[in-house]
Design brief:
Blueprint lengths: L7 E2 L2 E2 H28 L5 H28 L9 H6 L12 H26 L4 H35 L2
Antiparallel strand pairs: 1-2
Helix pairs in contact: 1-2, 1-4, 2-5, 4-5
This protein binds fe (iii) ion (2 copies) and magnesium ion (MG).
């Protein structure tokens, strides 16, 4: 069973797990903000469909940040206390939207989701059969990230097909 401090859960060092969860926590806040601002600046064909998707994903990323923070606390850690640390700890970084066109925005967001999928896949691999609570948490988040990536990819396809149909 998990003990606090420098303890070990079935071969996983808890301090290392907390460190990796904090990196994912930084990713979630940056992903949240990326969706938050993209939804406001996005332009172009079928942007309303994109706005609905981006808003939903923003809410999901904020919920993920909360889930990860709760687990860090349960493990005896402290979630990153300063937004400055989001940039030093992030795995996936932050794609500042420079081109507000809907297809460019969706491409940035898809990259972010692909990175999130690989982060949570690694966390699931690491905790499988070792820390069931964290494994369950990261698996649930992973399922959301996979759905995000699929939704964005499908929307990107619809929009690019529509644009090419207009060109005849
Ligand atoms: Fe997320
Ligand atoms: Fe996501
Ligand atoms: Mg969605």
């Amino acid at each position: 069973m998990a003990r606090r401090g420098n303890s070990i859960i079935k071969g996983i060092e808890v301090s290392e797990l907390i460190r990796l969860l904090n990196k994912a926590y930084a990713d979630e806040w940056l992903a949240y903000y990326q969706y938050y601002i993209e939804e406001k600046v996005v332009k172009g064909i079928m942007k309303d469909a994109a706005i609905a998707e981006l808003q939903q994903h923003a809410a999901d990323e904020l919920r993920h940040a909360d889930m990860v923070a709760q687990r860090i606390l349960q493990l005896g850690g402290t979630p990153l206390l300063s937004p400055k640390e989001w940039f030093t700890q992030t795995n996936c970084g932050y794609e500042e939207p420079k081109d507000f066109d809907v297809t460019a925005i969706l491409e940035d967001a898809i990259k972010g989701e692909q990175c999130a999928i690989s982060t949570y896949s690694e966390l699931a691999e690491m905790t499988r059969e070792k820390d069931i609570v964290t494994y369950d948490l990261v698996s649930r988040i992973l399922a959301d990230e996979v759905e995000h990536e699929e939704d964005l990819t499908a929307l990107h396809e619809d929009i690019t097909e529509f644009i090419s149909s207009l060109r005849g």
